[in-house]
Structures are given as structure tokens and as C-alpha cells.
Design goal:
This protein has a four-stranded mixed sheet. Helix 1 runs antiparallel to helix 2. With 253 residues, the chain is mainly α. The longest helix is centred in the middle third of the chain and has 83 residues. A hairpin with a 6-residue loop joins strand 3 and strand 4. It starts with a helix and ends with a helix. It has two domains: 167 residues, Helix Hairpins, CATH 1.10.287.1490; 80 residues, no CATH class. Bound molecules: zinc ion. The site of zinc ion has 9 residues, from loops. Zinc ion (ZN) binds next to loops.
């Protein structure tokens, strides 16, 4: 294969690796931010549970005070029972006391609900705080890994950029400019392998003469469909003989 063509293939490989690395390096801060946001959300959720426990306790205290208030009223009314003058007044007072008793039972039911709810909240607080430690650890580890990956990516990028310089130095200016132009226009693929007679980038079959030129000429040949620079890799000998065997088998059928 032509030396310049070989260099172009290597250059394309380097460029594709560089563009993958650039993506990896640039997306790393956002990934770290996402992880930290997850942790913050978790901490907020824990705080939220603590707030709702405090609110629950406050409501319970208020309900308990309400019960005390009703009890005081009942005892006042019971005292007044002795002072009423008429039967009607007495009956009315008893009815009032009955209603107050029923009210106490209602409020006590609500206190019970609050207690059950507090138990659930308390349980979830304990579960969350034990999970919080492992969440912190997980986020720290993932952030550390992302940062070390990014650093490794940057080292690899620097190495590849050096390699790129030496590859470009081996190309004529004309060929390099052609490569750059094609790479820009063709989504990073300026050079394409011919496989089974097809351009592997645009998937159009080459005319037999064009295929022969790619196989045998030392020049750079462009795909007639997509303009990419074509190359052909001779299959290894055993592949060759397998192809031939298959071909002769097909001929026999
Ligand atoms: Zn093509």
C-alpha cells in the first residue's frame, strides 16, 4: 500500500480516537455535577423527613392541649349540674357533656393516627440516615473514578496529538488538505476501506475498473459516489483460500 495512504488511515484512526476523547473529557464535569446533585437531593429528602416529623409532633401537642381544654370544660359542666334549677336545664347540660365526651374520643383518635404516622416517619429517617453514608461513599468513589478517567483521557489526548503531528508531517500539504476537507464534509470519515467490492462508507459497489485501481494502483483513488479516499486490504492467505473454496463450491452447485 502507498505510504501516504497508510499514513492517512492512521491519521483517521487518531482523529476518531481524539474526537471520542474530546467528548469524554468535556462531558465529565456534567457527570460529576449530576452525581453531586443526586447526593444533594438525597440529603434534602432526609431533611424533609425530619421537618415532617417535627410538624407531626407539633400537631400532636396541639391535639393533646385540645383534649385538656375539653376535659376542663367537662369538669366545669359537671360542677354546674348541681346548680341547675330545672329538669330541662339538667338534661341539656348532660347532653352537652355527652357531646364533649364524643369530641374527646374523636381528638384522641387523631392523636393515635399522629403517633402511628410518627413511627413511620421515624423509621424512614433511620433508614435514610444509614443509607446516606453509603450514598456519600458511592458518589465519592464515582467522582474519583470520573476524575481519574478524565486525567487518563487528557494524557491519551496529548499522546495522540503528538502522534498526529508526526503523521501530518509525513503527508504532502495537498493530501493533508484533501483529507481535512473530506473529514469535515464526511463526518470524520475521509478514508474508507473497500470490502467485497463495496465502499464501506457509502455502501455503493465500485465499478470493476475502479476496484482494480484501488487494489493495484499506488495512487489515491476517490470513491466515485462519496469522494472518500479508498483503500483495500488483501485478506490473509487462509481467508483467500476459504473464499476460493466457497467460490468453487458455489460454482459446483
Ligand atoms: Zn463511497
Amino acid at each position: 500500500m502507498d505510504a501516504e495512504l497508510k499514513t492517512l488511515i492512521d491519521l483517521q484512526e487518531v482523529d476518531q480516537a481524539l474526537s471520542k476523547l474530546a467528548f469524554q473529557i468535556s462531558s465529565s464535569p456534567a457527570e460529576i455535577q449530576t452525581l453531586q446533585n443526586e447526593l444533594t437531593a438525597f440529603v434534602h429528602a432526609c431533611d424533609g423527613r425530619k421537618l415532617s416529623l417535627a410538624a407531626n409532633q407539633k400537631e400532636r401537642r396541639e391535639l393533646e392541649a385540645e383534649v385538656q381544654g375539653i376535659r376542663a370544660k367537662i369538669s366545669r359542666h359537671k360542677d354546674q349540674l348541681y346548680q341547675v334549677k330545672t329538669n330541662e336545664q339538667y338534661k341539656a347540660m348532660l347532653k352537652e357533656i355527652e357531646a364533649e365526651d364524643a369530641n374527646i374520643r374523636k381528638v384522641e383518635d387523631r392523636i393515635l393516627e399522629k403517633m402511628v404516622e410518627a413511627e413511620q416517619i421515624d423509621k424512614s429517617i433511620r433508614e435514610a440516615s444509614s443509607r446516606l453514608e453509603s450514598e456519600k461513599k458511592r458518589v465519592e468513589e464515582e467522582v474519583r473514578k470520573l476524575e481519574s478517567d478524565r486525567q487518563a483521557g487528557e494524557r491519551e489526548r496529548d499522546r495522540l496529538e503528538e502522534k498526529r503531528k508526526s503523521l501530518v508531517a509525513g503527508l504532502s500539504r495537498e493530501v493533508y488538505l484533501l483529507y481535512e476537507k473530506l473529514a469535515r464534509a464526511r463526518n470524520g470519515t475521509a478514508v474508507a476501506e473497500v470490502r467485497d467490492g463495496f465502499c464501506s462508507a457509502c455502501h455503493v459497489r465500485l465499478r470493476p475498473q475502479a476496484f482494480n485501481n484501488v487494489r493495484s494502483s499506488g495512487r489515491l483513488i476517490a470513491c466515485e459516489t462519496c469522494s472518500r479516499i479508498l483503500y483495500y486490504v488483501e485478506p490473509p492467505p487462509e481467508e483467500n483460500s476459504r473464499h476460493e473454496r466457497e467460490a468453487s463450491q458455489q460454482a459446483a452447485v
